[in-house]
């Protein structure tokens, strides 16, 4: 299995990485501007830690040298979001879809993630 990635795949991966990073930065800014939403989900005391984790994970995901770490951290973050949505009776469709997008992008940027050897 070759670990070479086509130029088109690289461009697609960069565009999706940028969009996912922007999504998480926008989400973090929403948590800063409207902390009452976090209080409603009983996460008010964890708000600043969640915001910092979201921003750091998103930035690590964006940069090539730290993309694998960012993929793992965003996966963990989204796993937690899915659990919170499940326990709060909310739909898990959005965090699950974003999780799939994170992994598709992570694999496009790092084909060694699926290498079987």
Describe what you observe in this structure:
There is one protein chain. This protein has 117 residues and is an all-alpha fold. The chain has one domain (7-110). Helices cover 74% and strands 0% of the residues. The longest helix is centred in the first third of the chain and has 27 residues, at 7-33. The mean pLDDT is 89.
Question: Sheet with the most strands?
Answer: none
Principal-axes shape call: elongated
Which residues form runs of ≥5 with pLDDT under 50? none
N/C terminus separation: 10 Å
List the helices and strands and how they pair.
Elements: H1 7-33, H2 36-40, H3 47-62, H4 67-87, H5 93-109
Helix pairs in contact: 1-3, 1-5, 3-4, 4-5
Key structural traits:
117 residues, mainly alpha
Concise summary:
The chain is mainly alpha-helical and 117 residues long.
